[in-house]
Design goal:
- There is one protein chain.
- Strands 3-2-1-4-5 form a five-stranded parallel beta sheet.
- It contains six helices and five strands.
- It has about 130 residues and is of the alpha/beta class.
- The protein has one domain (about 5-125): 5'-nuclease (Rossmann fold, 3-Layer(aba) Sandwich), CATH 3.40.50.
- The longest helix is centred in the middle third of the chain and has 14 residues, at about 70-85.
- The two termini are about 25 Å apart.
Length: about 130
Amino acid sequence: MSDYILDASAVLAVLQAEEGADKATMYFDSGAISTVNVAEVLTKLIEKGNDPVKAVEVFDLLQLNVIEFDREHARKAAELRPLTKHLGLSLGDRSCLAVAIINDATSVTADRDWKGLTFCPIAVIR
C-alpha cells in the first residue's frame, strides 16, 4: 500500500519543472497514482504537443506505482461530487481523493483549493 496518492497536478509539476516540483518528488518513492490520473497526465502532455508514445515514455521514467481505478473507487468519487462541487473539483481530482480515502493515504496535489478538505490528509506542494 502507498502512503501518498498523487494527483495529476503534482506529477505534471515535476514533468513540466513547475513550482513545487522539488516538493512533489519527495512523495514519489512511497506514492502511487490512479489510472484515471495517469490518463490526465498523458492527456496534458499530448495537449502540449508531445507525441503520444513519447508522453507514455516520459511518464514511465517516473516509475510510479499505478493503482487500477475500480468500482469501489468510482463509487467513492461519485459520492464526493456533492461535497466538492462548490470547489469545482474535476473527476480526476475526485478520483485521486477517492483512492486516497480508500487506501487510508494522503492526497498530494498542486491545487491549493484542496487545503480545506477533510476527507483525508492532503499535502499541497505549492
